[in-house]
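Hello support,

Our group uses your service weekly, and this is the first time we've seen a run hang past the timeout. The protein is START domain-containing protein. I'm not sure whether the cause is the sequence or the server load. Input pasted verbatim:
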Amino acid sequence: MNSFSGRFALLILVLLLGAPASAEDWRLATEQDGIQVYLSSVPGSKYQSYRGLVDINADVRTLVALQENLRVACKWIYACAEMRLLKYAGDDVWLYMQTQLSWPLRPRDLVLHVTTERSADGAVVRHLEAAPDYLPAVQGMIRVPRLSGLWRMVPLADGRTRVTYQIRGDPGGSVPSWLANRFVIDAPLETLRTLRAVAERQPRPAPQ
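Update from on-call engineer: The timeout came from a worker crash unrelated to the input. Re-ran successfully.
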């Protein structure tokens, strides 16, 4: 698999209900196992944005590698059923993703345009934007019409990484309010919890 194919596996994410917000009114919704999840109302939308924060005992390079392997990334991204590379062009990548969600939701699919920025201090930011018209509709799938978000990975002095995962979107179709409210908690919490578990099992790189 192309080493770039997954680097935007971040996905992903996913999906569906959540975007970055520069001036949103974030409120802490839950804090579990060292992971904080914040929510924010979105004007004109019935879906809330979510933001998950966690410190992971792994360096940025390790986390980037886990995102660059699509097969592995789909295992730690909440509700991911399939993910594959559509196009790679330098710091821009287009990904296709299908979700596996609980009844009564129908499966969704998503085309993501992901752009990566790297800073001199070693931080990596990946911007996510839905590109629903990039591919024709897939039979049996509801195409996610709107999504924006980011992954931010900032190195800490002790070798850990502070990770932010933030999403805002519209899943398309009809979603019961109780399920939407559960999703915006479960998606960041489970994604970051599983990513942390996988990352902290990886061998630490030798000091340079």
